[in-house]
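Holo prediction. Input below; ligand is aspartic acid.
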Amino acid sequence: MKKKKIAIVATGGTIAGSGAAGKTTNYEAGTISVDEVLASIPDIRDRVEIVLDNLFSVDSNEIDDQRWLILAEHINKLADQQDIDGIVVTHGTDTMEETSYFLNLTVNTLKPVVLTGAMRPATATSADGPFNLYQAICLACHGESYNRGVLALFSNTIYSGRDIEKVNNFKIDAFDQRSLGCLGYMQDQEVYFYTQTSKIHTIKSRFNKRIDSIKSVAIAFYYSGADAKILYDLASDHEGIVIAGSGSGNYSQAWLKAIEELSEKGTIFVRSSRISQGIVFDDEIFDPHHLCISSNTLSPQKARVLLMLALTQTHDRDEIREIFLQY
Ligand code: ASP
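Structure of the complex:
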């Protein structure tokens, strides 16, 4: 049988990190080539044709909107090549949840696009990178991975790029999907899908055409006694603000007053929650005039990604509200 051809786009992160031999902490992310990680996966090049593309070598905290645009365009170009069957993106775990959602909205292909990374550097004892990369390659080769949206693979578990979140900053099983579970599991190279996202992605996304720049959106974290000045300051240089509210997307009367005044001047607000479980719906008490858009199940950082893209097309609140329901 003809070998599948997978492009690996390396962006850095701990999977390409190195430090003191054997140690799991105090290392530098993005310092070695993914080629070295591949070398520790037995026979991989005998089974799969791999093209390796070292796009960035950075800690994922250096991934910003400019790099997102470059990455999305790069993946779209690779996906257009007929002989490429799937794409794996190696990425730092810290901001993987934002990049995976951005790509889920902007990549225009049915072909599998799978993000993976590692919690331990390549030089650690029992580094988790090689196994995650191995499974991500197998997932990208698998027929059932087509048209599922951007995927992420970590610790035998298949996640949706829309819903994956980093939930542990220490353990190697660091990801989850809130109460939405996961899309499936892997046992070595075997793929077992059980569910799929019902939200719009990739080939059906209204954001999958070339984008030159995205809009500035900030996140305002609400805490007891938080000064409403935070909102006025942020509104001076951002078109949109995502509120990471308490509970179900809540805040003080002072924040409500600021939201009302700033909305009048054109700032677009999204209400999300600093709580990682649950859903944020429209609310008569905290948003009596329906000025805010509810994030639904999106975390503040994912809601920011969607609002940045939505603002490239419209400033109409009702249209953006609809986008938040669909994506
Ligand atoms: N700081 C690293 C990064 O996000 C953490 C990791 O990859 O696990 O690049």
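The pocket of aspartic acid is lined by residues 13-14, 29, 59-60, 92-94, 117, 119 (CB under 6 Å). That is the main takeaway for now.
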